[in-house]
Amino acid sequence: MLGGGGVGKTAFTIQLVSHHFVEFYDPTIESSYRQQFMVDDQIAVLDILDTAGQEEYTALQSQWIRSGEGFVLLYSITERSTFDEVEKFRTKILNVKDVSSENSPPIVLVGNKADLADAREVSTNEGQELAKIMACDFFEASAKTRLNVQESFFQLVRRIRARQNAGKADGEAAPKQGGKFKRMLNDKCVLF
Question: What is the mean pLDDT of the chain?
Fold first, then answer.
């Protein structure tokens, strides 16, 4: 999970794994969640790293990004500045992974806080257009109501699987992952 401070990364992740909404905002440095899900009739073990969105933790982002196989880029539809930061996070992913846009790891762009549509500062069309430019999937979601929370993660799992299967079809070895998030099973996905 990558995104600016206060966009709801922790609430979004906790809603997925625990089915409840966290009402208060407590800035995160790093939290890790591991849970098994059934995605398209196949078991997927998700290692989700909920990262800090605050500027003072940007040095840690490279370490987190190196380990990730897929990324949820989250912004708040009620705060334009968080939408404007999305491209910065994507560029950092490409730089750390040392890949071009065409070889980008799977990304899902999510506009969170859809339940606060009256306070909207970013239109759905703007999110869709950015996702089109980034060649990634897009969802508007709400950690509070659970709207598109599971769908966002599951779509990312599908993209990771498709990439892994394409690599196998081409005779390539699956990319190695380092550190504490080393992939041990083909059906495990490391998400940020």
Answer: 86
pLDDT of 170 reads 73
Range of the domain at 35: 2-191
Return the CATH number at 141. Answer: 3.40.50.300
Could you give the CA distance from residue 26 to residue 39 in angstroms, rounded to a whole number? 30
Is 110 within 8 Å of 148 (Cβ atoms)?
yes
| Angstrom distance (rounded) from CA 116 to CA 99 | 36
Number of domains in the chain: 1
Structure confidence by residue, pLDDT tens digits, 164-187: 999 887 765 544 444 333 343 445
- CA dist 132 and 136 (Å) reads 6
In tens, the pLDDT along 11-41 reads 999 999 999 998 876 666 568 899 999 999 9
Q: Which amino acid is at 147?
A: L
